[in-house]
Write a sequence for this structure.
C-alpha cells in the first residue's frame, strides 16, 4: 500500500528530525533510497529545487516524493505525515507544558541528540562528496575519476569565500551558488565533454 | 465566530509568509518576528524567543512548529491548524506543479549538464550547513565524543553499505544524554548523603 507507506515514512521523518532544515537530509535520503523512490543523484537534483523554492525543505521533499510515487493523494498524505508529529507536539507544549524546555531531563536528552544531528549531517555531506565529487561510492568498486566534478567543487568553494575576501559580512545566497554551479555544469560537461 | 475569523486571518498571514520564505526555517524566523512582534504586537519578545527555542528543539521543521505555536496562541486549536495549513500550502502547490514536469525538464540535454554541476554544489551546501552547526555546538568532551562517534560510525556503515538507520543514532545519543544526566544526579545524591552521615 503505497499511500500508507508514504504517510508512515514521512511521519517517522517528521518525528525524528530535530533542528530543522538540513537535519532531515540524512533521514530522507535514507528513506527514499531504501524504498527505491529515488537514487542519490535524483535526491540532490531535487534538493537544489527545494533550496530555490519557498517553504521548509522537509515539506518540499514530502510533496515531491509523494507526488512522483502516488499522485496528488500521495503528495497530500506524505506532506500530512511530515507535518503531523510537529503539529501534535507543539500543540501539546503550547496548551499544556509551556515550560517544556525547563525540565532537566528534556535538556539532557536534547544535549545528547544535538551533537548526533551535527554528526549525521556532516557525515552525510562527506559521503556525498566522496560519491559525487570523487566518484567513490563504496569500497568494492574502483572509483572512476573524472577531473570535472572536483574542479567544479573547487571553484564553488572559492566563490563562497569571495565575500570574505572583500570584507563583506553577507554570505552568498544558496540560490546564487546553485545558479553559478549550473553554469559551471554546462561549461564543463556540455562544451568540454 | 470571532475565533474562526481570527483563524482565517492567521491562515492568510502564514500563507503570505510561507510564500516568501526562501532558504528554510531561519529565514522565516526574521519574517515572523517582524509580523507578530514588531508590527502586530500579538506576542511579547520574550515569549517569541522562548518559542524559537522550542521550535528548534522539538521534532519537525521550524516553520511548522512556529506556525502551530503562534496559531494556537492567537485562536486556539483551530488557529494552529489554519496557521499550519497556511504556511504549508504555498510550497505544496509550487512543488506539486514542479513535480509534474521535473523529469521532462531534466531530460533536456543542457539541463542535465547544469544539474551535474548543481549536484556538486548541493554537496557543498550541505557541508557548509553542517559546518555552521558544528561551529555553534559547545565543544565539551561529551559533545565531541558523541559527535565523532556518530561521524565515524556513519561513514563506515555507508562505505560498507551496511544498513543502519540514522534514527538509531538519534535514539541512542538521546538515551546516552539522559543516562549521563541520571548518573550525575545519582552521584550528587550519594555525595550529599555521605556528607549528612558525617
Amino acid at each position: 500500500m503505497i499511500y500508507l507507506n508514504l504517510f508512515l515514512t514521512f511521519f517517522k521523518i517528521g518525528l525524528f528530525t530535530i533542528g530543522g532544515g538540513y537535519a532531515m537530509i540524512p533521514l530522507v535520503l535514507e528513506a527514499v533510497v531504501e524504498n527505491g523512490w529515488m537514487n542519490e543523484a535524483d535526491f540532490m537534483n531535487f534538493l537544489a529545487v527545494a533550496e530555490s523554492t519557498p517553504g521548509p525543505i522537509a515539506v518540499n521533499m514530502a510533496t515531491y516524493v509523494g507526488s512522483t510515487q502516488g499522485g496528488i493523494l500521495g503528495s497530500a498524505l506524505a506532506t500530512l505525515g511530515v507535518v503531523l508529529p510537529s503539529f501534535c507536539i507543539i500543540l501539546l507544549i503550547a496548551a499544556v507544558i509551556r515550560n517544556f524546555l525547563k525540565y532537566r531531563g528534556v535538556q539532557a536528552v536534547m544535549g545528547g541528540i544535538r551533537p548526533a544531528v551535527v554528526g549525521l549531517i556532516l557525515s552525510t555531506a562527506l559521503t556525498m562528496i566522496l560519491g559525487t565529487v570523487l566518484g567513490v561510492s563504496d569500497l568494492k568498486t574502483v572509483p572512476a575519476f573524472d577531473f570535472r566534478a572536483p574542479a567544479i567543487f573547487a571553484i564553488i568553494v572559492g566563490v563562497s569565500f569571495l565575500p570574505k575576501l572583500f570584507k563583506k559580512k553577507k554570505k552568498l545566497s544558496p540560490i546564487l551558488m546553485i545558479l553559478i554551479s549550473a553554469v559551471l555544469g554546462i561549461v564543463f560537461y556540455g562544451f568540454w565533454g | 465566530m470571532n475565533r474562526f475569523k481570527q483563524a482565517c486571518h492567521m491562515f492568510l498571514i502564514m500563507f503570505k509568509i510561507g510564500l516568501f520564505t526562501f532558504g528554510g526555517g531561519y529565514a522565516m524566523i526574521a519574517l515572523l518576528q517582524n509580523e507578530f512582534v514588531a508590527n502586530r504586537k500579538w506576542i511579547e519578545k520574550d515569549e517569541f524567543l522562548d518559542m524559537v527555542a522550542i521550535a528548534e528543539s522539538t521534532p519537525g521543521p521550524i516553520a511548522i512548529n512556529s506556525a502551530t505555536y503562534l496559531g494556537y496562541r492567537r485562536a486556539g486549536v483551530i488557529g494552529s491548524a489554519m496557521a499550519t495549513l497556511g504556511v504549508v500550502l504555498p510550497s505544496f502547490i509550487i512543488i506539486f506543479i514542479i513535480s509534474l514536469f521535473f523529469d521532462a525538464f531534466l531530460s533536456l540535454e543542457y539541463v542535465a549538464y547544469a544539474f551535474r554541476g548543481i549536484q556538486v554544489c548541493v554537496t557543498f551546501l550541505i557541508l557548509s550547513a553542517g559546518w555552521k552547526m558544528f561551529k555553534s555546538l559547545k565543544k565539551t568532551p561529551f559533545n565531541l565524543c558523541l559527535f565523532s562517534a556518530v561521524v565515524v560510525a556513519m561513514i563506515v556503515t555507508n562505505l560498507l553499505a551496511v544498513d543502519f538507520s540514522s534514527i538509531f543514532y538519534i535514539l541512542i545519543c538521546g538515551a546516552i544524554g539522559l543516562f549521563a544526566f541520571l548518573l550525575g544526579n545519582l552521584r550528587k545524591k550519594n555525595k550529599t548523603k555521605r556528607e549528612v552521615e558525617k
